[in-house]
Structures are given as structure tokens and as C-alpha cells.
Prior knowledge:
repeat, globular, single chain, ATP-binding, 2 domains, 35% helix, ATP hydrolysis activity, ATP binding, alpha/beta
Amino acid sequence: xxxxxxxxxxxxxxxxxxxxxxxxxxxxxxxxxRGEVHCLLGENGAGKSTLMxxxxxxxxxxxxxxxxxxxxxxxxxxxxxxxxxxxxxxQELDLVPDLxxxxxxxxxxxxxxxxxxxxxxxxxxxxAAITRVGGDFPVTATVRDLPIAAQQLTAIAKALxxxxxxxxxxxxxxxxxxxxxxxxxxVIRSLVAEGRSxxxxxxxxxxxxxxxxxxxxxxxxxxxxxxxxxxxxPEQLVAAMIGxxxxxxxxxxRPRPEGEVLLEVxxxxxxxxxxxxxxxxxAGEIVGLAGLGGAGRTTLLKSLxxxxxxxxxxxxxxxxxxxxSPAAAVRAGLALVPESRKEQxxxxxxxxxxxAAVTAxxxxxxxxxxxxxxxxxxxxxxxxxxxxxxxxxPVGKLSGGNQQKVVLAKWITRGGVRVxxxxxxxRGLDVGAKADLYRQVRQLADDGVAVxxxxxxxxxxxxxxxxxxxLHEGRNVAHFDPRTTPETTIAHTVITGVTP
Length: 500
């Protein structure tokens, strides 16, 4: 007979979640004990985020079941997850920036007498929660005004106020310094001593070995192993994450570019965020940027494009490149396809033609003459294979793949692009749309454009890049020739920051 202490706190069995064109979770399993720090490991795209969003109630599984303390639960909304005693601290913090720390901590369950919030009591409870996580900032402060480390501690304290049985921490160290992380580890140890269960997601093996009791490794949406951390070395965990079935990557069909160096990134530095130096891109070359989430790829591309302030020493065709804004970068011949096409790359309510012509005609898109916009963009949209009912169709009505092609089309339509910066260009695209996009990128490179390509999909980088740089914790730590380097070697460096 199973005693209460032996019953797992959490059991997720045969979890399947399908999205159009992909299976994000393919029968994944997760079992977490009471009073345990259980590490959830896997490469980018392994299925960790999907599994945790299902646990939080943000996604509903297509198959499988979830048990909490032996009882089956249906978590059909984030509110249901919270009510069941599950708190998730996402890497992108789930805080309301314009509210105070105290308001955030007790949002939805503030102490009250009837409809009136007892503000003094709320302040007392908030101070106790912040003190417990080692914070020394006022709970009356607006979250937006706090340093990112203080915001992270606030998110952890918020989970404590909900009396959660299971607390998920998604990459908590990504924004914390060493001292703050030590505080978090102390909090974690006190929580498990109370019998709470922690699911700790991290790519940093030193943290896993320090704080973890057991670890579940996911790969391609499946659970590939459960390990006792004390009896397992970090190399074994990394090997499980990478898998041993990968073979030497096949050589790209493109001849190696021999053009002159066009873009020289001598150094781009933001203190405490990135310090990247010595990346060169030749005319006609595709240089890949590999790295885990938070490694600095997006920050580097935005810095080069003038969208983030940084100390930059960059040369374009031998001359110093000074870009104080994205507009200056565009004038210099740089183009950026951003990570979020819907938020940064497109104006979803405007037509396909207006979006594709906006950079070419240099005026507000609502002032673009329809006839000129259509004539200018038609051949580019046709060459990219963009599928739409009409050039006047709102771009927001297109599929994700076609939207991404329109983002690329606006730069091709403009012409004069010398350096193309691509940030996760195939995210959310199906296989056919990915192939179409990379075909066009290779064509641009063949025409002499220097391409800097950031992607979490290592197999896409090895198939399309001429050189791959690995970024790790804000620094570029190694570069590889994908024609001759095993993908496992690159993947190992992505995870650990060290070349095996």
C-alpha cells in the first residue's frame, strides 16, 4: 500500500500536445516527489516550455493526464492551475509593471474587509514575503522601476504568497547575480524542507548539480531519462540532452564565400549583459549565431541595428559604423528581421502591399499610394512565394510563414541591403515555409549580402550557415565550420560554454 509520503506530489503521464506542423510534446512523462528539487533539462525546443504551460493551465494537452497528490486534475486555465496549488515563475516575468511590489504579490488575493483592501496588512504580508527571499527593496516601489534582479525576486516571492504545492522556476538565474542566486537557493531549500516541490529549469550544469535532487531530460518532446543528480555527472546529463544519434553534418552545397570581410564586429558591450568580440562576416557569407535563450543573440542583433544602446566598435566595409537608431542602420545598409514579427516586424491591420513597401518608399504606410506600392512589391512577393488573396488583404490574416516572408520582402523591395540580420526567422513556420525562406536568404547571400543568422534550431544553422559562432552567457566562446564539425560538438558547447 502506498503511503501519503510515497505518493508523488506531481505525475504527468503520456502528455501529448500538437500544434500545426509540429508535435511539441510527444508522450512526455514527469514525476516529482514531495519536498524535492526536480530539474527539467533539455535543449531549446525539447518541449520543456510546452510541458510547463500545460502544467500551469495555459495549454490543454491533446492526450495524457495530470495527478496532484494522487488525484487527477483538469487544469483548463491559469486560474485553475493556481487554484490547484501550482505557481510558475516564467523567465519572462509575469508581473504587472505599473503596479507596486505589494500589489503584484497579492494580486487577486489581497487581504480585505468586504470590498475594501486592507492596505496596511497587504504591506505587512508583502514585506514578509520579500524578506524571505532576501530582498531589501521597498514593497511600495513600482515594479517597472526595480532592477531586473529585484523583479525576479518579486516573482519568486509572489509564488510564496499563493501557498503553492508545486513551484516551477524557469531559468531563474538568467537575470540574477551570484549573491542573488545564493539567496534563491536558500529559499528553495527552505521550501522543500516544508514539503513543497520545486521544478527547476536551467541549462547551467553547475546549478543543477548544486540544487537538484533528480533530473528529467526531455528531447524532441519525449522523456529520455530520469537521473539521480548525486549519482550522475554533468557530462552524462549533457549527453542525454544532445542524444547520440546525430551524425556528422553534411556539407552545405554552397561554395565557401571568398569575398572581403564586409561586417567586422570588433566589440559590442553592455556591462553585465553581453561582451562579444571578433565576429567577422564576409560579403556573401552566412554566419550563424547559436546559443541558449538569454545567451545574447537577440541583444547583439538589436545592438548592431541601433535598437539597443551599447558600446560598439563595428566596421562596415572597413569604415567605422555608427548607428544611433534603427533609421541610421537602415541608411547604412543594415536590415533586421526581428524575433517577433507580429510585434516588431509588421503592422498587422495594414495590407500586404503597404507592409512590403514601407521601407522602400520612405513614408508612413497609410500614405503609400496603392498603385505604386503594389507595382513595387509584386515581383518580390511573387519571387518569395507569398500566398495571399489580394495585395490589399491585411497582413495579419496571412499564415505565419507568409507573414515572415512579407517581413523579408520589405527589405528586398527597398534594395541596397548590405547586411541582413535574422533573429529566429523560422520560429513557428512549417517545413515548407522554412525551406522557402532559407532559399531566399541563400539567394541574397549569393548576391553579396552578409548575413548574420540567430536561431535556436541548430540543425537549421548547420544546414545553412558557412560558420557558426556559439554565444554563452553573453559572450562568444567558440566558432565552428559546420561542414566538418559534428553537430554534437556544437550542441555540447551551446549547453556548457566549453568545447569538448
